[in-house]
UniProtKB/TrEMBL annotation:
Record organism: Aegilops tauschii subsp. strangulata (Goatgrass)
Binding positions for ATP per the UniProt entry: 55
Name of the molecule in the record: non-specific serine/threonine protein kinase
EC numbers for this chain: 2.7.11.1
ATP-binding listed as a keyword: yes
SUPFAM superfamilies found in the cross-reference section: Protein kinase-like (PK-like)
Domain (Protein kinase): residue spans on this chain: 27-307
UniProt entry tagged with the keyword ATP-binding: yes
PANTHER family on file: C2 CALCIUM/LIPID-BINDING PLANT PHOSPHORIBOSYLTRANSFERASE FAMILY PROTEIN, PROTEIN KINASE DOMAIN-CONTAINING PROTEIN
Assigned protein family: Belongs to the protein kinase superfamily.
Length: 334
């Protein structure tokens, strides 16, 4: 079965329901690896040993539209920082017994299959207190860069994620971040702002921008607010994220830099502080109440690229100084 499926493109890779039942022990509770408001996620193992995650939608009725929307978005999103789509299953219904007669019950089973990531989600590494992410800075910076790269790609193909949060950032064995869960994502032109129906807020509180909460407005700056919330929680902890709005920006930047100065080895701090300061400044700009003051994801990635280039230049200068010192010492000895 697995070898036949591997020969198909992800778009056409349809898994039979019976096969997915067999690799999850009929969707048993001990195979559950995650749950949300619209789906349960199970772990399955293909015949060739490949592990996959199966997102099984739990609601009926209008959820057919949700399934189709998510399917259409994920098959378009192919990037190293996006969770890789593997295949799908749509089973229209089944015969059920009712009043001693069999009737066809419209109970469709909808499943989306993805690569399984062993590193879990980013949320497990974050602190609820005034502490930053438990990972070292270089790993945190790698995660920040990867999330920004994935979001830049999504916006370049006009996909708004609309539910960016630590639980939806998954990590592989090398701590490479991948954005997942496109359940409420939308495809919209980057310049367009839409307004949803009043009273229909969908998403996660704490990661929704004020214009969506107050006026149900969705634009590309929705995801930027969510990104800012994620960065603050990585760098300062969840409690400091809740308090950052009441602290002057420069004071908050100094607070975060001091937190990381104590965590980073002194020999590394001379260039690490640039990355820390740049990331916290970006985070605060992303959290601006006025969405027009928030940066675009392209601007964020460009700024991080400039920091990386400066780091390389500084390192080359240091190497040049070291070489010059060695050369001078050699000349003195001759």
């Amino acid at each position: 079965m697995a070898s036949n499926l591997q020969n198909k493109s992800p778009l056409t890779r349809e898994f039979p329901l019976e096969f997915l039942q067999s690799i999850t022990n009929n969707f048993s509770e001990d195979r559950i690896i995650g749950e949300g408001g619209f789906a349960v996620v199970y772990k399955g193992v293909l015949d060739n040993g490949e592990e996959i995650a199966l997102k099984k939608l739990t609601h009926t009725g209008t959820e057919d539209t949700k399934f189709a929307d998510e399917f259409n978005n994920i098959v378009r999103a192919r990037h190293q920082n996006i969770v890789q789509y593997v295949g799908y299953c749509y089973h229209p219904g089944r015969w059920i017994e009712h009043n001693q007669q069999y009737v066809f019950g419209h109970e469709p089973t909808r499943i989306l299959c993805f690569e399984y990531l062993h590193g879990g989600d980013l949320g497990r590494h974050l602190s609820a207190e005034e502490q930053p992410c438990g990972l070292d800075w270089q790993t945190c910076y790698k995660i920040i860069r990867g999330v920004c790269a994935g979001l830049k790609y999504l916006h370049s193909v006009d996909i708004y994620h609309l539910d960016l949060k630590p639980a939806n950032i998954l990590l592989d064995n090398n701590m490479m971040p991948k954005i997942g869960d496109f359940g409420i994502s939308r495809v919209l032109p980057s310049s367009k702002t839409i307004t949803t129906k009043p009273g229909t807020l969908i998403g996660t509180m704490g990661f929704m921008p004020p214009e969506y909460i107050d006026k149900q407005e969705i634009s590309s700056k929705y995801d930027m607010f969510s990104l800012g919330a994620i960065l603050i929680q990585i760098m300062a902890g969840r409690k400091n994220y809740c308090d950052c709005g009441s602290v002057p920006s420069e004071n908050f930047i100094d607070l975060v830099c001091e937190i990381w100065r104590k965590k980073v080895h002194p020999a590394m701090w001379s260039h690490t502080w640039k990355e820390v300061k740049a990331c916290i400044r970006i985070a605060l700009r992303c959290l601006e109440y006025d969405r027009h003051k928030r940066p675009t994801i392209r601007e964020v990635v460009d700024e991080l690229n400039r920091i990386d280039i400066e780091d390389i230049v500084d390192e080359l200068d240091r190497i040049d100084i070291d070489i010059s010192s060695v050369r001078d010492e050699v000349l003195l000895l001759t």
